[in-house]
């Protein structure tokens, strides 16, 4: 039986690893080059010491060049032995056809070669350098080619320094290097691997070594993996009035249309934003309308007015102007079809109605037409994602929010269907429903990106029922409902027609771009983010795409459990089986209690200790499973967490790297402080991943902990919501406040100089809030509760005169005169002990 069970387990495990979907493994180290000043260029320093005196040494690595840079010149690496002899690989695009060259000492060797540009810029290329000391021979292997030279007077060495890119090492220093990326650096000797640097880090200045932990150091790193996983905020700015978006993927430009000017974000290695005012003055834009770049022109769609304005990029003028009215087609989808040179719009929302109409604007005739469609029923919707094939004759529409009748009042719901629309036959065809991963509903940003090569799509999803929402990139199949979460998330403020998000893919630069708009106070805030393709799953947060995969594994586990139960029953006595406890379901309160609703009955939520961060009393963090992770915080990690979380919650802006260095690593050099910060930030991210709805970001340039307060209860956040508006205090809010402070003073066991200001402010705020409420309630109305309020004040200030007066009056009101007198006398003694003088009022005067 035991061997049979082992076979079952092995089968399950083997099945699991066999069926795991393959994920793109994009990693390596990119190098900043001539496009930045010398101090900002990338340097990688690796060391190998006490090397055996043998006949050969082999260095290998994968190399690729970063495209679209103006200068490709400089050192790939310098290998220095015992500070005596250098062997260099350089690249010179000004030379003849052989751009790669080997230098030994101060002599240019005869070894030179080239790598085809398509391979060099689009793929990883394996390079190997074999140093044969016995035969005094140097050989370079590139692909299937090899290049050798003998008689180079090669000198055996014990200690090697391997410098990639720029370096400041003694007489070998240089700032010339080509824009490149590097990975899997290996050093071998006689078939033995001496060192391996994968260069697979996400951040920091340490290049981990896997054989002997002989880590290298990096200056100004451009970690490839991070740029495939973490969205980079490329630009953030504000324009007056409304704004619309369009993209020209061929020219690599994103257009932002504002009422008075056209802003162009040029997508290149040094992105730049330029603004050009319209030559004929302001243009009326309709809130919620959209633009599109098609047929080598920029179009603004006035859908409700069935009109289109065309922008001349040379004269900087619109050919038409229209009245500014509210749109009846917010968040519609649009696309351009080359087949008939027409712009199509689908769906939308306005006046409490979801739309299913398809409209066509023919560019040649300047005419609009309502298209009568056939095929499957297309549910009226908005907030869907749309993408097309290369020719634009087939559109894919996914998800959204709507209802079968189109009426908002009749059962609106989230939609998860993938529908294909064919221009030629004007037909809708439902392909499948996507498999949602969790219970949270979501919709899509306006565009999805179609990959015809592997029949897949990329789209941005977000929960539309939250104002402080987050955009998440997914990669799904065009043939079934599977998809995978890729990349990290983007902060996104969603307020229906006041918000807009779109997704673009620029093939030339191999990057996705997410653009968000948020309109408030007569202006629009625009944020542009980029992510290298292919995007990586976020570590610790990737989801298995195939729904069938889940069921297959679940079935295997069920079979395993059945056999384990049978085996267990055969091993245990019958008496044990008869004493099993009956199943007892959780009470409705345990299932339904929301830990974020702090009221008089929230003890159950506190006992559950799930999805909770306590800052009053002892610091405690509880995961969704109820596990406390505070024990994993070292003293330094604890202080780092508190610094970031308090500045995030209180000020909503986070804290800068410079401020962290100033507080935590003031005694270290800038380089050492940066290294320490990078290492501890990485550790903190891993811990916060366990909280699921709480993560560390740097979207604004500051370190900030983003928390979904609808999922995680943070007592400090709840405290701030109470004390921030003292004009709307109520008994219920004061009860909530006392429940928060029952755990103890704010971070009672944390003693940091920078924290004193927070603690002092919180104590004062609590006292002021309680006193303001107490003074607003007549003593006779609720004396018992006012006694509780006074006691809460005494907890923070034992000689607070107003609290003493409130309590004495309340006790006298309910006839407890002796207790009132005792309260006064206790207060008077404490007062004299602290201040060294007697309290200057008597008991009877305070009761008047």
TrEMBL record:
It comes from the Bacteria. InterPro entries: AfsR-DnrI-RedD_regulator (IPR051677), Gal_Oxase/kelch_b-propeller (IPR011043), Kelch-typ_b-propeller (IPR015915). The keyword Lipid biosynthesis does not apply. Keywords: Membrane, Transmembrane, Transmembrane helix. The chain crosses the membrane at residues 549-567. Gene3D superfamilies: Kelch-type beta propeller. It comes from Mucilaginibacter ximonensis. This is Galactose oxidase.
